[in-house]
Design a protein that fits this description.
63 residues; alpha+beta; four-stranded antiparallel sheet; 4 strands; DUF397
């Protein structure tokens, strides 16, 4: 990473009660994913294509 601070955000579907949420930071070539409960621990870094595939699969899963 180039030393630029990441801007993390949560889904608009996340409630304000502080439950288990993912936070995401988007850069042109990478997507960073972390647990909102432990923001100082290591995070995952994936390509935009991998993130898009994950979201597509997640949206197609039955609840």
């Amino acid at each position: 990473m180039s030393g630029t601070a990441l801007e993390w955000f949560k889904s608009s579907y996340s409630g304000s009660e502080g439950g288990a949420c993912l936070e995401v930071a988007v850069q042109p070539a990478t997507i960073h994913i972390r647990d909102s409960k432990t923001p100082t621990t290591p995070h995952l870094t994936v390509t935009p294509a991998a993130w898009a595939a994950f979201l597509s699969r997640s949206n197609n899963m039955a609840c």
